[in-house]
Each structure stands twice: as C-alpha cells, then as structure tokens.
Amino acid sequence: WIVLGIETSCDDTAAAVVCSDGRILGESVAKQDELNDLYGGVKPGAARDAHAQHIEATISNALEQAAISVEQLDAVAVTMGPGLELCLRVGFHAASALAVQHGIPFLSVHHLEAHCLVANMFRLASRQQEDPRAVAEDAFQEQAPAIVLLVSGGHCQLIRRDRQGHYEVYGGTVDDSIGEAFDKVARLLQLDVAGCGGGPAVERLAAEWALEGKASSLVFPIPMRKYRNCNMSYAGLKTAVRLAVEKGSFDKGEIAFAFQAAAVKHLMERTARAIEWSKSGAVDSGDHVRELTVCGGVASNQQLRSALQDIAQKHALDLVVPPVKYCTDNGVMIAWAAIEKIERYGLHTLQVDPRGLEVRARWPLGKYVGPGR
Ligand code: ATP
Ligand code: FE
C-alpha cells in the first residue's frame, strides 16, 4: 500500500507518503514556530490561516519527493481529531478534495492513535532489514498488548492497547499536560526557545546544569502521591516552579533540573501503577501486557526515555519508542496509522465518503477503565 497522510490538528502543517513496508517515500512539514513565539502559544485563527497558506505546497512537496502522482496513491488519510477545529478543517478539506477529485479512497485517522502506532513502523522497517523475507502481515498480527504513555502538548494519558488494536484509558491529567508544563516552565525561565520549542529548551538547560555537577537544595514535591490511581497533575508543579523563580535565589538550570526530575518521576510512578493495574485482574483486559510504548512530543525527552527503560526492565516489558523526529506531530504517523488499519480491517471496510463528514475537536481514544482514587 502507498498512502498519503495529512496532519493539521495543531500548529504543524504536515504531509507524507508512506509505503506499507515501512518506507517513507516523501515527507514535508511547515512549522509555525514564529507565530507561536509571537502569540506565546498556538492561536487557533492564526494557526488556521498559516495551515491554509501552506497546505497545498506541503502536500505537493511530499508527493514530488515520493515521485508519484496522486492517481498512484491507494488512499488519502487525514487527521479528523482530536485537535483544534479550525485547524483540523484545513487538512480535512484538502484531503477530501484530493480524494473526491481523483477518485481515491478517503480514510479518517485519530490523531492520538497515530501517535501511539508510529513506533511500529520503525520496528517493522528494522526487522525487514534483518530479514527481508519478513512480510508486513506477520508484523501486523504480532502486535502485543501494550501500556501506552501518551505525552504531548495537548494530552497526557496512560492507555492500554490490546491485540486487536482497541484502547482503554487508565488515566489522564486532571489539569495540564506535561508538555504544557515544559512550555510554561520555559516561559517562566525566559529561555530562548527559537527553533526548538519549550520542552527541548528546558531539557537542554537541565542537562547543562547536571554536567556542572553543583549541589542543589531545590527539590519539587511529586504530585498526587496521596492518590493510588493512574491520573496525573502538573498545575501544582507549575506553580511551585513559578514560586521558585520569583524567589530569585536559584539558578535557572537548577530550577529546570528540579522541575524535569519531578515531572519525570511523577510520570514514572503513574506508569508503574498502570502496569500493575493491567496485571491486577481488576480490569477484564485479556492477555497480559508485554510492551511499554511512549509517544507524543515529550517522548523525545532523554530523561524520560531512560527512566522508562528502567521501568520496562523491572516489569519485563519491551520498551518501544519512536525516533525523536517522529514523536511530535508529523504526516508519517497519519499515513502509517491508516496502513495498519488497512492491513487489519481491509481498505473497503475503512474507506468513507468525506462529503458530509465533520472533524471532531474532542474524540476520546477509548473508554475510561482506570482505578478510582
Ligand atoms: P497533541 O498531540 O496532544 O494534539 P501537540 O501535537 O501539540 O499535542 P506534540 O507535537 O506531540 O503535541 O508535542 C509537543 C509538546 O512536546 C510540546 O509541549 C513540547 O514542549 C513537548 N516536547 C518536545 N520535545 C520535548 C523534550 N525534549 N522534553 C520535554 N518536552 C518536549
Ligand atoms: Fe500531536
């Protein structure tokens, strides 16, 4: 299969052409970093205008790089939600126009599912390098049940994915996402985020501080220790950082380091809880979890990755992580999510007539079945 994936749910206009053997044939992204710097975040109207301005060129760049024409595509897949409604519509309209004009199957993709699945593509590609006879179908059938930690700008969730590709939500944030917290901390510390964004700027500063090896008395409390569920909270930690900044007696690097340590530790405690919950028998989840997957923009954080490695090892799970570049929004993950679904359910079951469809700003990935307090 060769699928074009289109993504405009937030601030990146992205398109990619992907083949079902895991090869990326062409990809193109137009970022809105300058607009975000100007407004101190994503402003939906401005983001929509920027998407509208870049969508056509982004799609044709991806197709050109892949050196294929629209007619050679097996499907056009687009993010239909969740995300910013105004932005989602730009991608949706471009995708549906292409599909209708050229008579190509149209597929709707769930943005969070795409984040969750993209690591599989790289796993498949590397397996095929080792053994060229390994066929895609085998890889798709082998999907082990997994705990997925989805940590992005807009989301912060612990999810269980079963063998059939269904999802159950074990927990989520009760206030802000961890990505938002990183962005906020970057602003509080007045870091230069040009060209990289808040999260990487905080991570870099924390790493520099750690290298200096100075002692520090600054430790932020880990959120929600009173609760034994899988929910997360970052509002309190944000406030603690603000107070530390206002106090004026700490280095910026010291604050960044202490914040990242507490933010990651909190996620680790919740992830461990989710693994225990899935094994507890309290939920009728069928097979035991065999994998731990992390995805979304914050998954590129190296502290988080190494902490997850420890947890995975402790619970005898395989850790599955996408390459850093594909943790944030991209077109590849949209095309790949569509390909996995086509392999599983068949193109004809999935293809829909885009005329009369509407984007979905809110769209839960699955039912909530997490522990109570
Ligand atoms: P959603 O997918 O929920 O709609 P989004 O698409 O805006 O949200 P992503 O593009 O997946 O989110 O991720 C962006 C977020 O990831 C930002 O909040 C950014 O600060 C954070 N982030 C990126 N790199 C890092 C890093 N190295 N460390 C911490 N946070 C990071
Ligand atoms: Fe995203």
Automatic annotation (TrEMBL):
Its EC number is 2.3.1.234. This is N(6)-L-threonylcarbamoyladenine synthase. It is found in: Mitochondrion. One of its GO terms (cellular component) is mitochondrion. Its cofactor is a divalent metal cation. It catalyses: L-threonylcarbamoyladenylate + adenosine(37) in tRNA = N(6)-L-threonylcarbamoyladenosine(37) in tRNA + AMP + H(+). It comes from Porphyridium purpureum (Red alga). GO terms for biological process: tRNA threonylcarbamoyladenosine modification. It comes from the Eukaryota. Homodimer. It is an enzyme of class 2 (transferase). One of its GO terms (molecular function) is tRNA N(6)-L-threonylcarbamoyladenine synthase activity. The keyword Phosphoprotein does not apply. Required for the formation of a threonylcarbamoyl group on adenosine at position 37 (t(6)A37) in mitochondrial tRNAs that read codons beginning with adenine. Probably involved in the transfer of the threonylcarbamoyl moiety of threonylcarbamoyl-AMP (TC-AMP) to the N6 group of A37. Involved in mitochondrial genome maintenance. Residues 24-336 form the Gcp-like domain. Keywords: Acyltransferase, Metal-binding, Mitochondrion, Transferase, tRNA processing. Binds 1 divalent metal cation per subunit. Belongs to the KAE1 / TsaD family.
